[in-house]
């Protein structure tokens, strides 16, 4: 609005009076009636006036351009740092949060044992059978995979409905491999997974474990593929059910 007012005011002040019109016919009529001396005087006074108007118009254009540029920068800045109530206080798009009651490894993985296991730990090359939950902890804690059985329940040996992978073969995301490698049989471990230890290129199709339901896939894909300030940190609960030797 400020720019429009300046332009309007400038153009109004620059409008030519009738006596100073630059119409060639009027100048010709005026010069023939007033004589050769008056004609020279008028033409001499008209040229500098016309040049001043050109200079004023150029100045207005420069000011208008500067105002436009400033407005665009301000709009872009406002869009980048717009206040979004849903994001307040959740550290979205900020540095990784540190949970004081979790143990942090050198890789940046944070974990807490909800139930320590009492059996052996898996070795390189062995196949493990696990049950797991997955949550988008950085975005409203939405679940994208639910456990197949009651947490802490007994395992009857039928592992066809559970997730399995081989230790040391890069079949799962780095955080999952690291977490399970350090677990004892029967244990339940909760892990906080930063994006760099999660799904490659923010695509769950390029890593495991993957959600088994369409709704879970949609919930996870929404967070991973979002280009905004959504925090892509994930939370997993993992229960080590079985270790299958080579």
Can you walk through the features of this model?
With 246 residues, the protein is an alpha+beta fold. Helix content is 35%, strand content 17%. It is built from five helices and seven strands, in the order αααβββββαβαβ. Strands 1, 2, 3, 4, 5, 6 and 7 form a seven-stranded antiparallel β-sheet that branches. β1 (103-104) and β2 (110-115) form a beta hairpin. α1 (2-13) packs antiparallel against α3 and α2 (24-34) packs antiparallel against α3. The protein is elongated and about 95 Å long. It starts with a helix and ends with a strand. The relative contact order is 0.15.
Helix and strand run: HHHEEEEEHEHE
Percent range for helical residues?
Answer: 25-40%
Question: What's the rounded overall pLDDT mean?
Answer: 74
Oligomer: single chain
Helix segment count? Answer: 5
Q: Terminal Cα separation, in Å? A: 75 Å
User: What spatial form do the alpha-carbon principal axes imply?
Assistant: elongated
Main β-sheet: number of strands, strand sense, barrel status?
7 strands, antiparallel
β-strand percent reads: 15-25%
Which structural class do you get from the secondary structure elements? alpha+beta
List low-confidence stretches: 1-47, 74-94
* Radius of gyration from CA coordinates: 37 Å
Give the tally of β-strands.
Answer: 7
């Amino acid at each position: 609005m400020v720019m429009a007012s300046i332009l309007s005011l400038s153009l109004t002040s620059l409008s030519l009076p009738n006596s100073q019109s630059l119409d060639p016919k009027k100048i010709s009529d005026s010069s023939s009636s007033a004589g050769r001396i008056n004609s020279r005087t008028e033409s001499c006074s008209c040229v500098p006036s016309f040049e001043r108007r050109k200079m004023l118009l150029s100045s207005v254009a420069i000011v208008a351009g500067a105002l436009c540029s400033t407005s665009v920068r301000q709009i872009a800045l406002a869009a980048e740092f717009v206040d979004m109530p849903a994001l307040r206080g959740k550290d979205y798009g900020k540095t990784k949060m540190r949970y004081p009651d979790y143990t942090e490894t050198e890789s940046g993985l944070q974990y807490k044992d909800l139930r320590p296991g009492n059996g052996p730990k898996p070795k390189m090359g062995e196949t493990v059978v696990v049950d797991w939950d997955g949550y988008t902890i950085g975005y409203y804690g939405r679940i994208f995979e639910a456990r197949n059985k009651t947490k802490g329940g007994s395992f009857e040996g039928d592992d066809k409905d559970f997730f399995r992978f081989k230790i040391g073969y890069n079949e799962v995301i780095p955080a999952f491999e690291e977490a399970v490698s350090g677990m004892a049989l029967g244990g339940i471990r909760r892990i906080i997974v930063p994006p760099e230890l999660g799904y490659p290129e923010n695509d769950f199709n390029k890593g495991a474990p993957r959600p088994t339901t369409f709704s879970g896939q949609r919930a996870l894909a929404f967070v991973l593929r979002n280009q905004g300030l959504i925090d892509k940190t994930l939370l997993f609960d993992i229960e080590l059910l079985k270790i299958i030797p080579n």
